[in-house]
Amino acid sequence: xxxxxxxxxxxxxxxxxxxxxxxxxxxxxxxxxxxxxxxxxxxxxxxxxxxxxxxxxxxxxxxxxxxxxxxxxxxxxxxxxxxxxxxxxxxxxxxxxxxxxxxxxxxxxxxxxxxxxxxxxxxxxxxxxxxxxxxxxxxxxxxxxxxxxxxxxxxxxxxxxxxxxxxxxxxxxxxxxxxxxxxxxxxxxxxxxxxxxxxxxxxxxxxxxxxxxxxxxxxxxxxxxxxxxxxxxxxxxxxxxxxxxxxxxxxxxxxxxxxxxxxxxxxxxxxxxxxxxxxxxxxxxxxxxxxxxxxxxxxxxxxxxxxxxxxxxxxxxxxxxxxxxxxxxxxxxxxxxxxxxxxxxxxxxxxxxxxxxxxxxxxxxxxxxxxxxxxxxxxxxxxxxxxxxxxxxxxxxxxxxxxxxxxxxxxxxxxxxxxxxxxxxxxxxxxxxxxxxxxxxxxxxxxxxxxxxxxxxxxxxxxxxxxxxxxxxxxxxxxxxxxxxxxxxxxxxxxxxxxxxxxxxxxxxxxxxxxxxxxxxxxxxxxxxxxxxxxxxxxxxxxxxxxxxxxxxxxxxxxxxxxxxxxxxxxxxxxxxxxxxxxxxxxxxxxxxxxxxxxxxxxxxxxxxxxxxxxxxxxxxxxxxxxxxxxxxxxxxxxxxxxxxxxxxxxxxxxxxxxxxxxxxxxxxxxxxxxxxxxxxxxxxxxxxxxxxxxxxxxxxxxxxxxxxxxxxxxxxxxxxxxxxxxxxxxxxxxxxxxxxxxxxxxxxxxxxxxxxxxxxxxxxxxxxxxxxxxxxxxxxxxxxxxxxxxxxxxxxxxxxxxxxxxxxxxxxxxxxxxxxxxxxxxxxxxxxxxxxxxxxxxxxxxxxxxxxxxxxxxxxxxxxxxxxxxxxxxxxx
Length: 878
Prior knowledge:
878 residues, mainly beta, 35-stranded antiparallel beta sheet, 12-stranded antiparallel beta sheet, 8% helix, globular, YD, tRNA(Glu)-specific nuclease WapA
């Protein structure tokens, strides 16, 4: 059977061919590239065949199963094998990865010793009820877990070092409803959680004896308010003296969308199109952010209209896409166009930055920067060619970065050879360098908890003193003298510097940084910066929209503009002026490489004012220009006062390639690389980035889109009467022509069967209430048009859905929870541990805490599916 899906913009067609069992065998994209999936007689995917590219012939990945259907081996496109072993109860007990492909090929029966130098063995043990009791990593270090009679985790104990008298443990307590009521951290401090009658988190409070509470900027208590639909509408933080530190109000409209955010006396107002897409964001600050968004026929971002700044002059950034929906070009208001080229697997191969239109600076057609990207068979980046300069990357058998070489370089990208030696779990043992800006560091050591020997830590794994690298120099500088201070949620709030100066940091109720103040040796404030943060933008992450700095009675305000990424900033009228061709406060436009790292700044004429270069982990190797700019590696904030990158949940030290604090996300049992609590980007910063320091709600939204798509396809394929069923990519105006031209025309109900007159909503397991409310809303809308639908009962979704990369280690367990409601729960393959609990504690409250730290409230799940569509569009474009 062949089905076709046509996008309306240019009649671009993607075709799907199915086998007799209903499995998708062939997918052919609009450019004619075909991906084939082969299944065994049990309907399990055993091979995925990818089309040839201009560099490589056709490739494939292979999955093997045992007689019981457990996945026992995966072979990637380069022939590298990961093996899985199970006990008699079907529980995963070992994952093996290999540094030697020959050993991997012969170890089919797990006969090679787990301690062999080429074997990375991660092992798991369970109690008689199936609860995980321990995890042993590739270095033989054991983390243990305790659970109660309900299967809830009550304790986690970290590995011990030789000579230690006691292990570090954290513990959990629950109330009568199974909600987390207390968490005692590794230092013995207890955080208390309270809930309302609907099970929503009302407050969390620090241990009264927590040492951070001696500081007036330290949060001691956080409180939350909700509306009748369960969406969070307000949040406040207080210090130990009960002084209000932060307050925000975020009321929702009838469709669950944020109407405005009022925080610290500044208000951001949001408006939306009828289909729920974000239309405008306007700040109450004079000359503040004032941005509008427009979309194409398939709801992809097409234009960003920016009137920010005191002049109010409108500047427009334009986006275009290729036939497969990949970003094709971004044209900035200063005439610079960034164009992108891809291979048949939709992997980026070229990026060109050129002056499309003369704006008083470079002539039209002037190419500022051209990148060519070469890949390995598996898609990892092997080379970047920039004119005469070539950067070559090397990896070990687990795709961890081992070398970076730049040849043919110049002052903007100097020649260098960097080599990294890693231990089995990816910790860096040494770095050798022939570039003065990046010093050689050898004989690095770690304890059993991966704490770096050159640094010191508190019991929770937060760095209290460490080594940082001053930008563009060969000076290793101690970050402090043991006086980095963290609050009860492990956020850095104060640093005492070796020279006697200090700084404090402030955060909102979600843990996002909103302020920083520097003090001289006498304790007098010398510089203060406040950040107006937005969490409702198209990037999926909390972003600074306005940054105001006061020093020596002078105030500078920067207003930042975002599309799907950071585009520019403009100085306010009260700020010192940058050079400008029209006499207005000038802007700077961010020109990035494929990874989002800022390589140049350009003015309003297109002239380049600043250039930057980095090694693979973000250490600056060269810089030119004098513009005050903190947005550098991966487009994130470099804090020169700390020598660290601010990545929302945590800070990252580019010199060590490690986070400054331990990750609360413990990783996936199927992917041991994710279990390393300090490594940045799993030790492969060339191919991956971590913008949140955490698993974010943006990533949950990506999973949600995949689940919606796959259930929708199953619903359509299994229709008893073809032509009567509609899935979530079809709008109301397509289902019923009467809706055309109305305010509801672009709404997209999840599943509609016009033959049985039934409707279904798809939501995560813990959002039954939101699904019911949304279903009732759609039934009412249909009823207003004279069509009577009911909550459906005749369709049963697939019991399990295999998620697409990068979440292929997970499945979505689906069920018809009640009439008209399909719920899904995420879990690891061959493992009943819920991903929603992220292996910390199996409660919804912990998930909410994790997602909030990643910049969004879990209450967003209560919003209408139109908001889910917004997130889906963001994902496609990023």
